[in-house]
Amino acid sequence: QSALTQPASVSGSPGQSITISCTGTSSDVGAYNYVSWYQQHPGKAPKLLIYDVSNRPSGVSNRFSGSKSGNTASLTISGLQAEDEADYYCNSYAPGTTLVFGGGTKLTVL
Amino acid sequence: QVQLVQSGSELKEPGASVKVSCKASGYTFTHYSINWVRQAPGQGLEWMGWISTNTGNPTYAQGFTGRFVFSLDTSVSTAYLQISSLKTEDTAVYYCARDLGIGQLITWGQGTLVTVSS
What residues contact B88, with CB distance under 8 A and at least 6 apart? Predict the structure, then answer.
């Protein structure tokens, strides 16, 4: 099972909105609403931001939102803040493999 | 609060074995599966597989069969990852993570760095 495809890097200025894409196939992202997004700061464990495409766990800021269209899921961060600078990963349920991650996206806040 | 606490860093020689523990607290251990995720230095997250804490049945991702074993001790709410015949390319941080049901990794351990070097 190939990894999901994410852009290697994105950037934005404080206050702006950015979107990170996560492209899979009709067998994983496109077939199921089991896409999650994680934030990872250097040296720290990942943190779940979004699950089941668009749901936020308790305590996660509503500046983070998720969506999906076809085989591509997206994470949008609005009102960009300095502390949002981190690596972001998506994952998806994939029958046969069960779970597959994206390659990760480094977000730089300018 | 819900947390997963992993064992400390390990330095091993090639060919040795290592066992990483992941102790759960704050919830009923047998209600949620435990996943294992590897992160090599400077690399992304790689799903290794999961173990049902209800049945003890493990599922391994491609590339993690043979030398990798997931196990449990439900009496102490702890999951284990054992890696045998260690190779230098096994050097990585290994995370355990609690699963909400289908890949939603809601709670993560702090990670265990395993370094394989002669």
Answer: B14, B116, B117
The H-or-E segment that residue A93 falls in is strand A86-94
pLDDT digits over B54-67, tens only? 999 999 999 999 99
Any residues with CB less than 8 A from the CB of B35 and at least 6 apart, and which? Answer: A99, B47, B48, B49, B50, B96, B97, B98, B99, B103, B105
Contact yes or no for A21/A72 (Cβ under 8 A): yes
- Residue A2: the pLDDT is 67
Selecting from B46, B50, B59 the residue whose C-beta is nearest the C-beta of A101 gives: B46
E strand map for chain B: 3-6, 10-12, 18-25, 34-39, 46-51, 58-60, 68-73, 78-83, 92-99, 105-108, 112-116
Residues in chain A within 8 Å Cβ distance of B33: none
Instruction: Give CA–CA dist A110/B26, Å, rounded.
Output: 39
C-alpha A62/C-alpha A49 separation (Å) is: 10
What 8-state DSSP symbol labels residue A2? P
Q: Give the residue from chain B lying closest to A39, CA to CA.
A: B45
Which residues from B are below 8 Å from A97, CB to CB?
61-62
- At A2-34, the pLDDT tens digits run 689 999 999 999 999 999 999 999 989 999 999
CB within 8 Å: B102 and A93: yes
